[in-house]
Amino acid sequence: MSWGGSSARASFVGALSLALLGGCGPEEGDADANDDASVNDSEEGGTIDPTTPGTTAGNETNDDAPVGTSGSAGDSTGGDDVSFIETPDGGVAMCDMWTQDCPDGEKCMPWANDGGSTWNATRCSPIDDDPGQPGDECTAEGGGFSGLDTCDLASMCWDVDGETNTGTCVSFCEGSAVDPLCSDPDEVCPITSDGLPILCLPTCDPLLQDCVEGQTCHPKGDGFICFPDASGGMGVFGDPCEYFNECAPGFWCASAESVPGCVGSGGCCASYCNTSAPMSSCEPGTECVSWHEEGTAPTGEEDIGVCVTPA
Questions:
Q1: How do residues 38-51 score in pLDDT, each as one tens digit?
Q2: Domain range holding 282?
Q3: What's the whole-number average pLDDT of the chain?
Q4: Are 121 and 70 in contact (CB under 8 A)?
């Protein structure tokens, strides 16, 4: 058995879809799994990655303007400061974040061209006169979805506070959507199904919860990455959850069948556990089950487990 997949600040960080990390997953990756949870056998290290299309905490899916769709010039709400790449026929085209094909002094950025809270297009935006480097504090003009910030080329202001519009500069991924790369070996590039945005995020250990303050360790394919915490002081064992980042550090959003007494419509938060000491770390009515299939765990992840209802 294996398991993979699952304030103002929550409104910003919630814009990445569940395709990025996985949401509340079914009980198991077998015939008894919840059909609505879209169980998929992952090609990344033998884990099961049950993902449910949708968004993370703080954002509802907009069926009319899904993440990653390109708007037309007529859809733009950015004003006269928006730049587009002209095509030979005189039309306009969105820029490419991978190749950064904007004019000198500008950078290609994801943004919400409808003024909403979901990145749905790209735009050429002016680079700040004194741009911040990855790790520096930054400001996002007009909020985290405007595509306007004080970070340098090929980076963006991330984990933006909706009240102060401040966050931290984070590097874009390098390479391509087919072969995404991060220069820092301790970071990975989790690409959403729609490709917006493209960020190198830190890897982490869900047992240690070794992310920086305000972030929590969540599953991504066969690994784990740091992502801003949107639990709001809740999200412990048995609490209802619909989105993966509604669970507090040390917990993940599991299917209702996996958590005793769960009444959540999407699922409930369940604990991570150490498979080397399963009896001492799980709540009554659950047992510690390995996250990875036997023999497939990457180095350092052999002891990662989750507390779920016995099969």
A1: 222 333 332 322 22
A2: 1-66+192-311
A3: 74
A4: yes
Tokens of 209: 């919860």
Please report the sign of the dihedral spanned by the C-alpha atoms of residue 253, residue 201, residue 190, residue 126. positive
DSSP letter for each residue of 43-58? SSTT-B----SSB-TT
The answer on 104 and 41 residing in a single domain is no
Task: Please give the Cα distance from 272 to 106 (Å, whole number).
Answer: 44
Q: Residue 109 is encoded by which pair of tokens?
A: 């950025």
- How far is the CA of 139 from the CAs of 42, 145, 225, 227, in angstroms? 37, 12, 24, 19
Query: Is 181:173 a contact under the CB 8 Å cutoff?
Result: yes
| CA atoms within a 13 Å half-sphere pointing along the CA-CB vector of 181 | 5
Structure tokens at 18: 């569940």
Distance CA 5, CA 252 (A): 9
In a domain, 186, yes or no: no
Q: Same domain for 113 and 145? A: yes
The string of pLDDT tens digits covering residues 126-173 is 999 999 999 999 999 999 999 999 999 999 999 999 899 999 999 999
> Residue 279 gets which letter from DSSP?
G
Query: Do 77 and 58 have their domain in common?
Result: no
SS3 label, residue 18: helix
